[in-house]
Records
---
Amino acid sequence: QVQVMESGGGLVQAGGSLRLTCAASDRIGENYIMGWYRQAPGKQRELVAFITPQTNNARYVDSVKGRFTIFRDDAKNMVYLQMSDLRPEDTAVYYCNGRNLWSRLDTWGKGTQVTVSP
């Protein structure tokens, strides 16, 4: 089973940008839908964006449309979340997720903290 690890979180002012990176331990290009989730204090984990393998179709939660972009580099087994125009309500721990299309098994990273100050 592929393992994933996030990096790139930090503290940023409202209106700023961050790029999150998810590094996978093995090939993800053919069989893994990759996604980013987030969990704010006291709230449930929510899906932020996902991207399909091969066709690279991406979908976003409404609250980040036009501000976040998910993309993948399958040659490097990497997935990214480019976040722009950040808002305080984007503050959360962000998790990378990989779902195997065949086994339906999920793999999760440990998360990276994103904090947006007003």
Note: The chain has a mean pLDDT of 97.
---
Amino acid sequence: QVQLVESGGGLVQAGGSLRLSCAASGSISSIVAMGWYRQAPGKQRELVATITSSSVTNYADSVKGRFTISRDNAKNTVYLQMNSLKPEDTAVYYCNAVVVIYTLRNYWGQGTQVTISS
């Protein structure tokens, strides 16, 4: 089992910045990758960024150059630094952990709201 707790969402103006945090606990050693996904009203959940246990990163085209995912292994925490925010970044952001213990399983955080005003 893995538990994920997100923080850092809020309301900012377009062009501003936010940093999301996701603290993991439980079977930490079994996590092979973590990431951030988002879901806007009326839309499907979409990938924002991922980072593997070896720190290989992947970004959605819509956030490349603006968002940075990173991890602090000592704190079991993954961060999403979001700069140059746009109104279309408004969504609930969810932390994800991919865990492999015999089989692959996804764990999700409770979500944190990010709202960008124009």
Note: The chain is about 0% helix and 60% strand.
---
Amino acid sequence: QVQLVESGGGLVQPGGSLRLSCAASGRILSINDMGWYRQAPGKQRELVAKISRGGNTDYADSVKGRFTISRDDDQNTVYLQMNSLKPEDTAVYYCNAGVITTMGYFSDYWGQGTRVTVSS
């Protein structure tokens, strides 16, 4: 099995910064795309940012220029640096990874979520 464990959420004032981390562990052969999604109260889960194994990135328009996604394949970890945070960034943030397991199967895995609250 594969587990994704997120960390780094919390309460921050508008204009502040947070860095989220997500570490994947388990029967991992390789990881394709890794990404961050978020779900605000009463809203659907949405893509925030994703990064391919080759380092290509894609961002939601609402976070471009403020958030940066990166990955460390040696550590099977993906990061999300969030700057200039706004109250509308408040949500539960979920990590996602497309994993090829040591058994040769491909599957999407999700973390348990980490809460980010932007408020004064």
Note: The radius of gyration is 14 Å.
---
Amino acid sequence: QVQVVESGGGLVQPGDSLRLSCAHSGKYTMAWFRQAPGKEREFVAAINRSGRKYHYADSVKGRFRISRDDRKNMVYLQMNSLKSEDTAVYYCAASNRWDTSSTIGDYDYWGRGTQVTVSP
């Protein structure tokens, strides 16, 4: 059974940095999505199976960085210059596709999420 488990969320101040981690159990294209209260889940970042292709939402481009360590079966989301609008539950997702995708339906396995709150 495929497992996807997020960790690393917390309460930070605007301008701070935070790194989310995601443990998974195979070789997948991986992504991060987020869902703020009262809003739909939205794409944040993705990295393909080879780790050579990345895809970011415009709202986080230049501030967030996705990476993977396949020796450890881990994916990371480094979040810098955090803003209050980044507050959300962040979900890690795994896809059997080779290429990145920003579409929720293209991801086969999901974690339960980790809360990130950015507040003064």
Note: The chain has a mean pLDDT of 96.
